[in-house]
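Chapter summary example: a protein plus 2-deoxy-2-amino glucitol-6-phosphate.
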Amino acid sequence: MCGITGFTGKGTALPVLMQGLEKLEYRGYDSAGVTLADDQGLRTFKAKGRLSELRSIVENRELHQHTGIGHTRWATHGVPNNLNAHPHTNSTNTISLVHNGIIENYVSLKQMLENNGYVFQSETDSEAVVHLIDYYYRRFQDMETAFKRAVRDLEGSYGLCVISTYAPDTVFVARKESPMILGISDEGTYCASDAPALLEYTRKLMTLNDGDIAVLKPEHIALFDAKGNEKKEEWMEFPYDLQSAQKGGYDTFMEKEIHEQPQTIRETMRGRIEGKSIVLPELDPILGRILRADHVLWIACGTAYHACVYGQMVLNRLVPINSAAIPASEFRYGNYYVDKNTLCIFVSQSGETADTLAAIKRAKSSGAATIAVANVLGSSLTRIADATVYTCAGLEIAVASTKAYTAQLTLIYLLAQKLAEIMGYSTREHDEIITYLNELDRLTQETIDIAKPVIREYASMLKNEHDVYFIGRQLDYVSAMEGALKLKEISYIHADAYYAGELKHGPIALIQDQTVVIAFATQPEVASKTISNIKETVARGAKIILITDQNTPAEGFTYVIRIPEIRPDLACIISAVIFQFLAYYAASERGCDIDKPRNLAKSVTVE
Ligand code: AGP
């Protein structure tokens, strides 16, 4: 969602802030701003729209301050405009603040502050916080005390960065349920809502823990827990370089990330197959609880939720206990039965999705055992879960998830096999499973090579469509759901997914002459049934793009992609690259901003 950068040090703050914000552009935003501080005062610049607007305002000005904060805002409270853009300042222009998240008690805080004479300029919840800090500064006459005291009054979620003329070389930082990374180098200290903003300057990073406060000075950072006790910093060397946060010769991050999948699948498998065994030692601390689980819930949002549906279906084939996938936004409020015999598996690329975090907290408070399947090291989800298994997809920058999705499917497949083994259910197909898993990266590359020469032509069929339908049965339905999501999120073509067998119960009424139907038939057990359903749509004039295996008869279909020979329960993983390319080229032909689709954010850290 919104992006935050902050710096204090020897060098000039503005370039650090602007370059950091550029690296966070992928998160989605609709306005941007910076404040710079020195003992002469605060200077704030804001602009609605792209960062280039802000850049045109600040360039050619003499701005050599050493301390500053920056923000890209994705509107939640109040429309995108200059007044609602961050940073927000107090009325005497002595304190400036940027905020990610939602202050849930801002109405009562605003009331209290207005009763004390404060005048609000914006419609945002965030502005209440800057006045609150001012309110406490007037009482304590010390910025650090005022900041810490104000943070205690906040309810909701926040990543906060504050600077002030009262402490012009300091950045005050706090976080709760909103990501915040700290960094340090010989040049100064840094903060940002995501690591790519800092990688150009340092790889010595640390995640600020939930509820903690950091006070950044040019040469060191002081950390405090929620009770105000000083804590020791725990720096780590960030494992990715800036290159992996850049496009590496491709036009877009999404294109690059689609091509990276053979490698990211390989990385996700690395060390997890030894001979004929699947090894996931991360599960050791909860083996007893897995053994006693009498039902399994898979919980996540968006693409990660689709990976959960895959997990549910794969596990249901292996063990005779109930397994269900539930969107996190539903689970957190729904009447789903959870107790100490429930195993809840949470899947998230970022590990910071607000609904998924709320869902895991709900599961834990009901006594469930929890496993996180996450991509971002040390993210909030991984710190709450009883056990974490990491996908190793590397940095995913494009808003549309691609390599994180196939890494999730791969790891979920391994996890399902392992859970079945721990629960005492063995499969006669074990050797074949291991053989195909070892081939998965190569088969993904082969699918890319098969799909690429034809997919542009198929994608051009979609260019002027208003509605496209994705259909499949069983595991192919997972591909249908994720294919439809990919197409709509980046090309803005309306797309829906249906179980092929459900078509004649309603959706077939939508099929007319030339309607495009994208059909998956990679599951031999039901392929002939799916083909019959497809023919029913052809009879009503549909144009079909068929993604199928090597053996399913496909006479009469013009647009067919056959995936390489693979076990049917792994077919979803390799066929993903086909619908990712399809969505990519359709969006590209329509001139869409592929890496930053409208209204979307990479990491949805608000509810
Ligand atoms: C998919 O392309 C989207 N970016 C979105 O659905 C995403 O998968 C969802 O918001 C969950 O994100 P997470 O994996 O970081 O929790």
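Key point: Residues 301-304, 348-350, 353, 356, 399-401, 489, 603-604 surround 2-deoxy-2-amino glucitol-6-phosphate (CB under 6 Å).
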